[in-house]
Amino acid sequence: MSAEETLQTITDMRSLVTISLLFIYSTVFAQDEKSLKVAATAFHHALVEQDTAALKGMLSNKLVYGHSNGWKETKQEMINNLYNGTIDYLKITSTNEQVTIDGNTGCIRATLEIDVIMEGKTLPFRLHGLEVWVWKNKKWQLLSRQSTKL
């Protein structure tokens, strides 16, 4: 198998995983911890895959995405920054998740290990993260996210 064929196979597999996660995400019509965790996992996967089309449906139009250095992004800024390569997520691992749901609002606190490329440099981060999700139109949408360095 040539390098080009191998690359195409990997790309096809990534697309299949993204589609599968989005299918699971879109078919879950319950406001429970499991569906919120599925939404968060699909979101993290879409970031790594730079799947801006999927992200548009996952993100609230009122999104405030806060980084550990104080940088904040709106929905459109986040999508633009992924698309133009300002930030490239290589890996996102979430552990020690604590999920709380109250009405149409869900929160996930977690320890995050995130590797990104910014300005040509690979940067590893170990963070505490808080994601605030809202149940809207029968799906979870990310309203706000904030992280702090450990």
Please describe the topology of this protein.
Blueprint: H1 3-27, H2 33-49, H3 52-58, E1 59-66, E2 72-73, H4 75-83, E3 88-102, E4 105-118, E5 121-136, E6 139-149
Parallel strand pairs: 1-6
Antiparallel strand pairs: 1-2, 3-4, 4-5, 5-6
Helix pairs in contact: 1-2, 2-3
Radius of gyration: 15 Å
User: Counting H and I runs of at least 4 residues, what is the number of helices?
Assistant: 4
The strand count comes to 6
**What is the annotated CATH architecture?**
Roll
Strand order of the largest sheet: 2-1-6-5-4-3
**Form type:** globular
Helix content: 25-40%
Q: Would you identify the regions where 5 or more consecutive residues have pLDDT less than 50?
A: 25-29
| CATH C-level category | Alpha Beta
Largest sheet: 6 strands, mixed
Distance between the termini: 44 Å
CATH topology description: Nuclear Transport Factor 2, Chain: A
Q: What proportion strand?
A: 35-45%
Question: How would you spell out the order of helices and strands?
Answer: HHHEEHEEEE
Q: Report mean pLDDT, rounded to a whole number.
A: 89
